[in-house]
Design brief:
This protein is 36% helix and 17% strand. It is built from 17 helices and 18 strands. The strands form 5 sheets. The chain has a 6-stranded mixed beta sheet with strand order 2-1-3-7-8-12, sandwiched between helices. A 5-stranded parallel beta sheet has the order 15-16-17-14-18, with helices on both faces. A 3-stranded antiparallel beta sheet has the order 4-5-6. Strand 4 and strand 5 form a beta hairpin. 44% of the residues are buried.
Length: 510
């Protein structure tokens, strides 16, 4: 601060939280919250922000998996780092609800029965932000983000209005007004609000060609875009709520000094071909492992069971997903035969059988009743993150015994494919004298990192058509940094791609 006027922004920081799936089935799963924050991460990094992105497609033991404790810890750390002349932006894409007339955010592990104690109060987020040294604080909120076909049945019409009132003293842009629902856009695979937020930050909100986008610019652009969206979507509407007290009209995105006014690498214009997190669900983005898939499909055609074992983010979940996506054509079976369950969404043994029966479209049951319901049926059941079943306080082991009974033999209703970080015999040492039931029937396949040749082919495949190429030295550096591990390679290649395509660092003033 000099002469009573704010100094230009020194550093820009962002914390992004996206939660699609919830431990408690009382909160419906969402579709695009994770895609929202990953796209926002890309845009903000291109604008010079340092970004911490938390979402539930990361491993549950990672510090950025979006539990309340992890979110509060990451926010507290950021608030300690930021300085007087910094800008701090926090974005949530998740469910929201009112508790005692106060808005709370639903994190991954929140339980409806303990909502008042375990959900994250928005007042706590504001308090942490205010206690930081940063003079510029921005909160964007795409909560009650349930989608058109579900409706905001976990929310409350007063939620956004209460958030709006809490916004005094810092800038907040919320997805909708008190009477409206935050929508998801199936065609664009984003929340409607966040989609236009992304477009606005990419430069489209700068209607006056000033070379920067302010809070008011963004509000105007998102509002006008949502009104057009209303016309095209049968009268559904949401209008963003904005409050900016005591801070003026802050500049959120500054393109002055760049060759182009609009950030050309944003959103869907020229997406970074790297940086996938979580499982790959699009066969067009799945790379390699063709011989492994061929062997898996051959084994499954014979009714065999397989266990995929490998370290975190090495590709196990993506392989399971490709079995379900490609299996109908490869094995000439109806798509209804292929079932996928992510055990991270399962709370306990009862929840598992309920989720299993729901996938099978039968009434909840287990034991002999389940066996009778599956008579003369055949399914390929993919169980992801089966490590969750090691929690003895939630799983007795009976569920593994019944799975074994339903899959042990070519004429049984299930062919199992499990994914875990440790071998089944080590995960479930049921007794020192006998093999764990699942380990006894599931042949183990180790999922290894990419070879150096596979790394080079992967990089070439992803860079095709981008106009960007990596030098031999850069590729060797990526090999050294990642050791061929797909997850590590994605992150390192994404950072390199950004450094080669970012026009300039740019600056932020206020």
């Amino acid at each position: 601060m000099s002469n009573g006027l704010p100094n230009p922004i020194r550093d820009r920081w962002a914390l992004l939280i996206g939660v699609n799936r919830y431990t408690d089935p009382a909160f419906p799963s969402l579709k695009f919250c994770v895609k929202d924050v990953l796209a926002l991460e890309q845009i903000l990094q291109g604008l010079g922000y340092t970004v911490l992105c938390m979402h539930d497609e990361l491993n549950t033991d990672e510090s950025r998996f979006p539990t309340r404790d992890n979110i509060e810890a990451e926010l507290a750390q950021l608030c300690q780092i930021v300085g007087d002349d910094d800008l701090l932006l926090v974005h949530f894409a998740c469910h929201g609800k009112l508790v005692d007339n106060q808005p709370v955010l639903i994190t991954r592990e929140t339980r409806a029965s303990t909502l008042a104690k375990k959900a994250l109060p928005l007042a706590d987020v504001e308090k942490q932000m205010r206690e930081s040294k940063a003079h510029r604080l921005v909160l964007t909120l795409d909560a009650c983000h349930t989608g058109v076909e579900i409706g905001r049945d976990v929310g409350n019409p007063e939620f956004i209005r209460n958030v709006y009132e809490l916004a005094e003293g810092f800038a907040l842009i919320a997805a909708s007004t008190a009477q409206q629902v935050a929508q998801e856009w199936q065609e664009k695979e984003h929340g409607v609000f966040t989609y236009y937020l992304l477009e606005g930050l990419s430069g489209k909100a700068d209607n006056d060609c000033k070379g920067f986008v302010t809070v008011n610019d963004l509000q105007t652009y998102v509002l006008n875009s949502l009104r057009r969206w209303k016309v095209l979507h049968r009268g559904l509407i949401q209008e963003p709520s904005v409050r900016s007290d005591g801070l003026g009209d802050m500049i959120l995105a500054d393109y002055r000094g760049r060759k182009n006014t609009t950030l050309t690498t944003s959103l869907r214009i020229q997406p970074n071909p790297f940086g996938d997190t979580g499982r790959i669900t699009d066969p067009k983005r799945f790379f390699g492992r063709e011989e492994l898939l061929r062997q898996l499909f051959e084994d499954l055609s014979k009714g065999s069971n397989r266990s995929l074992v490998g370290e975190a983010q090495v590709g196990k979940s993506s392989i399971l997903w490709m079995i379900c996506k490609l299996g109908p054509e490869r094995l000439q079976l109806p798509k209804e035969v292929f079932k996928y369950i992510d055990m991270r969404n399962i709370y306990n043994e009862q929840d598992f059988f309920e989720a299993l029966c729901d996938e099978l479209n039968i009434e909840p049951c287990r034991g002999s009743q389940l066996k009778r319901a599956l008579r003369d049926k055949c399914y390929i059941l993919c169980l992801d993150e089966i490590d969750i079943m090691t929690k003895e306080e939630r799983f007795t082991g009976d569920e593994r015994t019944q799975l074994c009974g339903l899959a042990d033999g070519a004429d049984m209703p299930f062919s199992l494919v499990t994914a875990s970080q440790k071998p089944l015999k080590d995960l479930f040492p049921d007794s020192p004298y006998r093999t764990s039931p699942l380990a006894g029937i599931c042949h183990q396949i180790n999922i290894e990192p990419f070879s150096s040749n596979e790394v080079r082919r992967f990089l070439s495949h992803r860079l095709e058509g981008t106009g960007v190429s990596f030098s031999d030295n850069q590729i060797q550096q990526l090999l050294t940094e990642s050791s061929g591990h797909p997850g590590h390679l994605q992150r390192a290649a994404a950072a390199l791609y950004r450094s080669l395509t970012q026009i300039s660092e740019g600056g932020f003033d206020a």
